[in-house]
Every structure is written in C-alpha cells, then in structure tokens.
Amino acid sequence: MSKIEAPRGTKDILGDESWKWAYVSHVAQGVVSDFGYKEITLPIFEHTELFHRGVGQTTDVVEKEMYTFLDKGGRSITLRPELTASVMRSYLEHNMARGSQPQKFWCIGPMFRYERPQKGRYRQFVQLDIEAIGSRSPLLDVEIIDLSMEFYRRLGLKNLQVVLNSVGCPECRPLYRKALQDYLAPHMSELCESCQGRFDRNPLRILDCKNPACKAITENAPSILDNLCDDCKSHFATVMKALEKLGADIKLDKRLVRGLDYYTKTAFEILSGDLGSQNAVCGGGRYDHLAEAIGGAPTPGVGFASGLERVILTMESQGATFGKEPKNKAFIVTADDNALLEAASLANILRTNHIATDMDYMARSMKTQVKAAAGTSDFAVILGQDEIEKKFYTLKNMATGEQESLSLDALIEKLK
Ligand code: AMP
C-alpha cells in the first residue's frame, strides 16, 4: 500500500521546531498584553457568505483560494482564509458596540488558502491576528503599526521595511478608480492576461502586479495619494505625523493596495529583506466598511495579520535567538529492571513537585540512558539496587559531571 503523506502546502511542526513556535507565541502574548489586547478564539470554519461579502467576490482569495464545501446539512462552509471578517462577525453578533470602544482583540491560529506552495507560502499557515474595532482614530492605525514593529523588535528581527499607503474610501476611491482606468485604457493590450481581466473588476490590483510589462506601465500611473478626499487626506496626514513622532522608518508605496477588498484609508505591509519573493511578514490596514458589507451597522476597525512561518523563517535566516530550548530537569537512570517500578514512582513524586522529569522505558543500558539524560535533561537521577536498599538518590549534574548522594527531600529541594 502506498504511504500517506501530509497534503501539499501543509507542514508538520515537530518537537525540534515546536519550541520555536512556543517562543514566538510567548513573545506575541507579552506584546499584545502591553498594548491592551484581549484574546479571542473563533471557529476555524464559517459560512462561505461571510468571506464572499466581507473579503470581496473579485479578490484572489475568494475567487481562487478558498477551501469551500457543503456540509452534511447542505450549507456552504469555508475554512477561514483570514480572520478579520470573522472577528467583525463576532463583534457584531455579540453586540460589542455596547461596551467601551475600541474593543481590541488578538488571536493566533491556522488559516487556509489554496495557493501554489513555495518557500514562505503554504496552504495551511498560522497568523497572529490583531484587530481594534470601534474607533475611527488615526492614532489607532498608528498603534497597530507600532504593535507590529514592537513584536518584531522583541523577536530581534532586522532588515525590515514598513511600507504604507492610503487606499481611500467609498467617496474618493471610485474617482481614483476611474482616473486609473482612463490612464490604463490606451495600454490595455500591453497588460498581462490577469491584469486585462482585472481592468473592469478590480483595476487597483493592477498596481501590484509583479509582471515587468505591467510594472512599467503603472510606473507613471496617477497616485491614489494625490486623489484622496479631504477626510482620507487628513487621516493619512495624522498617521504620518504620529509615525514620524515614533521615529518609525516608513516608505510610502503608491502601489500597495492589498489583496482584500475591505481596506479603506491606511494600508500597510512590513517586508523582510531576507525572505525572497514571499517577503511580507505582515499586512494590514483600516476597514471602516467591512461591518456594513456583512450586514452590520457602520463600524470602523483597523488591524493586521502576520504570518508566523515567515517570521520564523526570517529569524532563522538572521540567526535570531529563540531563547533556550526547554529541557527536562531530571532523567531517571535505572540500573536494572528491579529499579523500574521505583523509578516510575519517583517520576510521579518529582512531577507532582513541578520538576520536569522523564525516565527510560526501553530497558536500555545505563550508559545509553546517561547519554539520553545528557541530551534532554539538566540532571540524571541514578537509581540502582544500592540506592533503593539504602534509600538515597545519586544526582549527576550533566553539565559539570558532579555527583552527590541525596535523601528524597534533599533531592526535591535541589531540583526545584
Ligand atoms: P493577508 O491576510 O493576505 O493580508 O496576509 C497577511 C500575512 O499573512 C502576510 O503578510 C503573510 O505574512 C501571511 N500569509 C498570507 N498568506 C500566506 C500563505 N499562503 N502562507 C504563509 N503565510 C501567508
């Protein structure tokens, strides 16, 4: 029979890597708590309509990338491709507008997109998602960007670039869209096939096409920053001023339009210089009309999502530290089968005293067990007939090789 492997675009995170994930998650939790965000846990799957209406019918995510199926009740269900629409759905469903505003949320969890897998791009990937809902203040946009930068700073990431744009609002975007179409129309036949398709449906996406011909054409296209309405212009000016005050190194990018339809005003990405083509470690922005799109009262919001695989890849390539790989405190080495029962009960005593402990279950030689202890634990507790009969324990420090004989109480005290 053929072997069954993990589906393409997914990956198993095994023991030698999972502690790195735990470290990144721990750092994230420290940052979000310092910024006053609360954890939210939402379903992995939602009604497909949430993404059709929230993310937008003409986006790549909705058109091509969703894992959608009918459940046994005939409902169309989608594995979440992103979290913002779900967070807004939950905010509206639980009437959170009644509490003090803004409400600030964080979540770490898997997302699913049927994309062409490559380094840094997977079909199941984990995002740290941050959302602040209920305020129009441009300072909240700045808080979100500041939070993302603080996360990367605490992880020791270098060589990052924050790129920023405004994508306008329903008042000014249609006018800009028209100006862009007028500019692009004479070049229609020179655009790539995908961009020709985008011309009517989503012309702003032509600005971030990677095709060199399309890039050359859009080089001199009108900039949305020159076409913002007064409200979007003053919002953007405040964001810029506040970021300047924070000393943030920001690059304006008129091509940045983001792949999801719900963005209004501020849009930003943080790019890593060490990731190759999939170089965005995070992306986000403001989404003041998402709530209405999914049937709620007008509710402003701003947020970002960071792909943790890409964060870890960047950390690895820059040699950043993940802290110390966690080790057991003690490994019980048994001289023979007779000592095994004693070892099991000693392991129980140590564990209930919060001392991380492991032991041998494979009847290996003492030499092999001591080697296992050296690889996994700070100390070996040696348990032979002599120790059992005379009721003491030999404790070996695996770093220094020092040994001492201890009573049970002294052993617990020492290992604690
Ligand atoms: P988005 O939800 O498309 O705005 O993406 C936000 C962030 O999620 C990106 O900047 C990446 O860090 C990460 N991301 C998006 N898609 C993928 C993917 N297919 N594989 C890995 N990370 C991803």
Counted by DSSP, the helix tally is 15
Regions with little confidence, pLDDT below 50 for 5+ residues: none
Derived from helix and strand composition plus strand pairing, the structural class reads: alpha+beta
* Biggest pleated sheet: 8 strands, mixed
| Spatial order of strands in the largest sheet | 1-5-6-11-10-9-7-8
Radius of gyration: 27 Å
The total count of strands amounts to 16
Q: State mean pLDDT (0 to 100 scale).
A: 94
Shape: elongated
What separation lies between the terminal Cα atoms? 50 Å
Can you characterise this structure?
This protein has 416 residues and is an alpha+beta fold. It has 15 helices and 16 strands. The chain has helices at residues 15-34, 48-54, 60-64, 84-93, 138-155, 173-184, 193-201, 212-218, 230-245, 290-293, 308-318, 338-352, 366-376, 385-390, 408-415; strands at residues 38-39, 45-47, 67-70, 76-79, 103-112, 124-133, 160-166, 250-252, 264-272, 280-286, 301-307, 328-334, 357-359, 377-383, 393-397, 403-406. The strands form three sheets. An eight-stranded mixed β-sheet has the order 1-5-6-11-10-9-7-8, with helices on both faces. It has a five-stranded mixed β-sheet with strand order 13-12-14-15-16, with helices on both faces. Strand 12, helix 12 and strand 13 (357-359) form a beta-alpha-beta unit. Helix 5 packs parallel to helix 9 (230-245). The longest helix has 20 residues, at 15-34. It is elongated, with a radius of gyration of 27 Å.
SSE blueprint:
Layout: H1 15-34, E1 38-39, E2 45-47, H2 48-54, H3 60-64, E3 67-70, E4 76-79, H4 84-93, E5 103-112, E6 124-133, H5 138-155, E7 160-166, H6 173-184, H7 193-201, H8 212-218, H9 230-245, E8 250-252, E9 264-272, E10 280-286, H10 290-293, E11 301-307, H11 308-318, E12 328-334, H12 338-352, E13 357-359, H13 366-376, E14 377-383, H14 385-390, E15 393-397, E16 403-406, H15 408-415
Parallel strand pairs: 1-5, 7-8, 12-13, 12-14
Antiparallel strand pairs: 2-4, 3-4, 5-6, 6-11, 7-9, 9-10, 10-11, 14-15, 15-16
